[in-house]
């Protein structure tokens, strides 16, 4: 099989693929996996809050897009678009690979940092999640979370992940955050934890996690960022019970088991000392808290 055929058989591609057979009409592509839909869907006049699907008209040459990582189908792989084949519903892209900073680094999972150009391949349009804001130079592409975006953090991340593949065990555990500052080379970046709004699977609002809401992630820990989670910011007027400035997150960038894990953690984990007990039983010192 060629790359395009292989990509279209991945779980993520199958989840998104619902296409009308009328002369390659790609406007009918929608997410049809019912397990990803909210039991309480928001209906907002003039706003497609439940539609994060993309058509071929969404793409342009030189854009950098996030692609779904086959390890767990989360959008943390990146590629730059070189050519668009509308009739074939595919794109020629140059893959972006993390610039390794030490000899021991083997496979960096993080969705931010410095990237260099890799192989050029043909990819099905179904493998593309969303466009990424980036800084481009002749040899590198830099991706960092931007203020106002929503991202997933690895809950159990530690610096040893980059040199010890055995520590990168599936399933990965995530915390969801809103980025509330731009990245600073000396300070790092500020984020606010988010928790799910009661009654909605993918509507999130600022909420306390590990004893705090806002924290600073220092530059040395930026690889805690797994992937950007596409979202729509809500006004609170959409429905009764929707908080002001909450977010509707794209379910395709959230693991299926998140809701189950959240309930298990709330009922089983007990914090017995000043350190934070994580979902896999490990402990981690409290992060820098923003007053």
Number of strands: 18
Computed over alpha carbons, the radius of gyration is 19 Å
Q: Termini separation (Å)?
A: 55 Å
Task: Determine the number of helices (DSSP H or I, runs of at least 4 residues).
Answer: 3
Helix/strand-derived category reads mainly beta
The coarse overall form would be globular
Low-confidence stretches: 1-48, 259-287
What is the helix/strand order?
HHEEEEEEEEEEEEEEEHEEE
Notable characteristics:
291 residues; mainly beta; 9-stranded antiparallel sheet; 7-stranded antiparallel sheet; DUF3444
What does this structure look like?
By secondary structure, this protein is mainly β. The chain has one domain (3-289). The chain has 3 helices and 18 strands. It has helices spanning 3-7, 11-16, 258-268, and strands at 64-69, 74-85, 90-98, 113-124, 128-131, 135-136, 140-143, 150-154, 174-179, 189-196, 203-206, 214-217, 225-228, 231-233, 247-249, 276-277, 283-284, 288-289. Strands 8, 9, 10, 11, 12, 13, 14, 15 and 18 form a 9-stranded antiparallel beta sheet that branches. A 7-stranded antiparallel beta sheet has the order 5-1-2-3-4-7-6. A two-stranded antiparallel ribbon has the order 16-17. Strand 2 and strand 3 form a beta hairpin.
Topology:
Elements: H1 3-7, H2 11-16, E1 64-69, E2 74-85, E3 90-98, E4 113-124, E5 128-131, E6 135-136, E7 140-143, E8 150-154, E9 174-179, E10 189-196, E11 203-206, E12 214-217, E13 225-228, E14 231-233, E15 247-249, H3 258-268, E16 276-277, E17 283-284, E18 288-289
Antiparallel strand pairs: 1-2, 1-5, 2-3, 3-4, 4-7, 6-7, 8-9, 8-13, 9-10, 10-11, 10-12, 11-15, 12-18, 14-15, 16-17
């Amino acid at each position: 099989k060629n790359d395009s055929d292989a990509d279209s058989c991945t779980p993520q591609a199958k989840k998104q693929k619902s296409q009308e057979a009328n002369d390659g009409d790609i406007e009918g592509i929608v997410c049809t996996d019912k397990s990803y839909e909210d039991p309480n869907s928001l209906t907002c006049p003039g706003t497609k809050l439940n539609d994060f699907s993309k058509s071929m008209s969404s793409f342009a040459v030189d854009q950098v897009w996030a692609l779904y990582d086959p390890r767990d189908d989360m959008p943390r792989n990146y590629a730059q678009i070189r050519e668009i084949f509308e009739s074939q519903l595919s794109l020629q892209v140059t893959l972006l690979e993390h610039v390794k900073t030490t000899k021991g680094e083997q496979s960096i999972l993080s969705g931010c940092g410095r990237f260099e150009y890799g192989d050029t391949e043909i990819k099905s349009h179904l493998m593309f999640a969303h466009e990424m804001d980036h800084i481009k130079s002749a040899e590198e592409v830099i991706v960092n979370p931007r203020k106002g975006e929503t991202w997933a953090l690895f809950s159990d991340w530690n610096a040893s992940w980059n040199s010890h593949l055995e520590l990168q065990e599936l399933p990965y555990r995530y915390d969801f955050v809103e980025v509330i500052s731009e990245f600073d080379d000396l300070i790092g970046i500020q984020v606010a934890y988010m928790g799910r709004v009661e009654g909605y699977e993918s509507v999130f609002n600022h909420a306390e996690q590990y004893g705090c809401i806002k924290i600073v992630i220092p530059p040395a820990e930026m690889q805690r960022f797994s992937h950007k989670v596409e979202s729509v910011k809500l006004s609170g007027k959409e429905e009764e019970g929707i908080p002001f400035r909450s977010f509707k997150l794209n379910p395709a960038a959230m693991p299926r088991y998140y809701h189950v894990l959240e309930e298990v953690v709330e009922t089983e984990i007990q914090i017995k000392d000043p350190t934070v007990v994580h979902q896999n039983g490990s402990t981690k010192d409290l992060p820098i808290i923003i007053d």
